Amino acid sequence: MRATTRGKVKVLSGNQAAAQAAVLCQPDVVAAYPITPQSEVVEELSRFLAEGILKAEFVEVEGEHSALSVLIGASSSGGRTFSATSSHGLLYMFEAYSYAATLRLPIVMAHVCREVAAPNTVLCSQQDIMLARDAGWIQIHCASCQEILDSIIMAYRLAEDPDILLPVNICYDGHYLSHLSARVEVPDQADVSTFLPANKLRECRLDPDKPMMQAPYLGGKLFTEYRYKHCLAMQNALQKIDYLDEEFQKSFGRSYGGLIEEYRNEDAEIVLVALGSAASTAKAVIDLKRDEGVKVGLVRIRCFRPFACDRLSKALKGAKVIGVIDRDVCFGWNTGIVFVELRSLLNRLRMNQPMVNFIAGLSGADITKDHIERAINNMQLALHGKFGPEVTWLDLE
Amino acid sequence: MEFKTKYDGPWVDIDRNDLLTNDVGDWRYRSPEVDKSKCSLCGQCYLFCPTGCIEDRDTYFGVNLAFCKGCGICAKVCPSEAISMKTGGHQ
C-alpha cells in the first residue's frame, strides 16, 4: 500500500533504521554500549546527537548493566528512554533487565539477535533473546528494515499505555537485518509526533515534590499481587498490539498483521511457523511450492511475548501438519524453543495435528531456500502419514 | 479480583504511609494479650518494643497486631504482669 503521509525514502540498514526511529520518537535519555552486530545503532545515535538532531541526554556508559540501569533511573523519573543491545550485552545487563520489567517501566530497547557463546561467535541466532523470554518484557520480532523503524514507533505507544506500562524489545536478526541495506520510508517528524504524542507524566515517578518509594521489600501475598498484575498487563498488550497495527496503517499506510503475519495461509494444509528474517525466505519458497500445487502457508510470529494464543489458534486451526523453524535450541527438550511453546498451545486447545521441528541458522548459518524446501518436503511426507524424526537439524543432515 | 495495592507497579506513596501494607504480623506464632485492668500506663512496653507497635490507647497500652512479630519483650518488661504471650499467630 502507498504511504499516505509525507516522508523521505532512504536506503538504510536495519541498525540505521532503528537509530532513525529512536530519533523520531524524541527520547529524553539514551544510554547504550556498542556490541557487534548492534554497534552501528550507537554510532548513528552519536552522530545524530553531534548534529543536534537527537536532543536527548546521551549517557556514555562502561557496559550494558549500566546502560539499562541509567534508563531505569531516567524512566522512573518519567522520561522517555531508548537503548539497544545484543547477545552477551543482554546477558551482562540481565539483572537490570528483570528490574526494568517488574518495575513496570516503559523502556524501549532494540535487540539485535545474536548467538550466545561458546564456541565464540558474533553471528546470528535467536538464542540470546529466547533466554530472556520469561523476564517480563514484551518481545516483537521484525522481518524487514522498514518494520524495525515502524515497530519502534509503535513500541512507545504500547509501552507507555497506562493499561500496559511494560518495557518492549524490538528484535531483529543480527547481520541478516542489522546489516542489510534496504529501502526505508522515513516518516515526517510531525506525523510521528501526531501518532506518538509527548510522554505523559505518570503518577508513579521519582519526584522530590511528591515523594514515592520504589520496589519496597515485599514477601508473599503482596509480591504475588504485583506478579498477577504484570501478567494482566501482558494480556492487555495482546489486544493493544493488533489495535496499534491498525492505527499505524491509518496514519502511515503500512501494516504488519499485529501479533502475527499470515502468508498464503487461507487454505493451507501445511503451515510453517517462523520468526524474523527466515520468514521472508520462507515466503519465496512458499510461492514456488504453491505453483506446484502444494497447499502450504506461513505464520510469522511477530509478538513472541506475550504469546499470541488466540490469533495463533485461529491461524493454525485448518492446518494438517505444523512445522516450526527454530533459530535457537531448547536444551533439555532437545528441540527448539518456539516449538515447545507452540506444542504447549496446541495441547491447551486440544488440537493434535502432527508437529515437526527444524533447527537451522545457528551462529550465522544461512537459512536458505534449500533449507525451507527440505522442511516443506518433510512436512509433505508427514501429511501422507510418513513421519520422520520430531526434530530435524537442517545443517547436520 | 480485589487488589490490596493501588498501583500496577511496586511503588509506595510515602504521604499515604502505604508502607504499612507490608503486613509483617503474619510472621508471628504467639501473640501478646493485654489485661487492661492490670495496665498501670507506665509505658515500659511502649519504650522497649523493638518494632514500635505498642499504641497508647488512653486507658491502657495496646498492640498493633498487623505489625507485632510476637517477640515477647513487652510481656517480659511489664512490671504489672499485664501482658501475657498466648500461642497463636496472625488473625
Chain-wise SSE layout:
The complex is a heterodimer of chains A (397) and B (91).
Chain A: E1 7-13, H1 14-24, E2 29-32, H2 39-50, E3 57-60, H3 64-76, E4 81-86, H4 87-92, H5 94-102, E5 108-113, H6 127-131, E6 138-141, H7 145-159, E7 168-173, E8 181-187, H8 189-195, E9 212-214, H9 220-252, E10 260-263, E11 270-274, H10 278-291, E12 296-301, E13 303-305, H11 309-316, E14 321-326, H12 337-348, E15 355-359, H13 369-383, E16 391-393
Parallel strand pairs in A: 2-3, 2-4, 4-5, 5-7, 6-7, 11-12, 11-14, 14-15, 15-16
Antiparallel strand pairs in A: 1-8, 6-13, 10-12
Chain B: E1 11-13, E2 30-34, H1 44-48, E3 54-56, E4 61-63, H2 73-77, E5 83-87
Task: Classify the oligomer.
Answer: heterodimer
Q: Topology as H/E string of chain A?
A: EHEHEHEHHEHEHEEHEHEEHEEHEHEHE
Cα-to-Cα separation, first versus last residue of chain A? 41 Å
Mean pLDDT of chain A: 96
Specify the structural class of chain B: alpha+beta
Q: Which strands sit side by side, in order, in the main sheet of chain B?
A: 2-5
Taking all Cα atoms into account, the compactness measure Rg of chain B is 15 Å
* Overall helicity of chain A: 40-55%
Output the strand order for the largest sheet of chain A: 3-2-4-5-7-6-13
Low-confidence stretches of chain A: none
Radius of gyration of chain A: 21 Å
Textual characterization of the structure:
The complex is a heterodimer of chains A (397) and B (91). Chain A is an alpha/beta fold and 397 residues long. Chain A has two domains: 8-252, 3-Layer(aba) Sandwich (Rossmann fold); 260-393, 3-Layer(aba) Sandwich (Rossmann fold), CATH 3.40.50. Chain A is 40% helix and 20% strand. In chain A, the strands form three sheets. In chain A, strands 3-2-4-5-7-6-13 form a seven-stranded mixed beta sheet, with helices on both faces. Chain A has a six-stranded mixed beta sheet with strand order 10-12-11-14-15-16, with helices on both faces. The longest helix of chain A is centred in the middle third of the chain and has 33 residues, at 220-252. Chain B is of the alpha+beta class and 91 residues long. Chain B is 11% helix and 21% strand. Chain B contains two helices and five strands. Chain B has helices at 44-48, 73-77, and strands at 11-13, 30-34, 54-56, 61-63, 83-87. In chain B, the strands form two sheets. A two-stranded antiparallel ribbon of chain B has the order 2-5. The two termini of chain B are 22 Å apart. The interface between A and B is medium-sized, with 25 and 18 residues. Strand 9 (212-214) of chain A pairs antiparallel with strand 1 (11-13) of chain B, so a sheet runs across the interface.
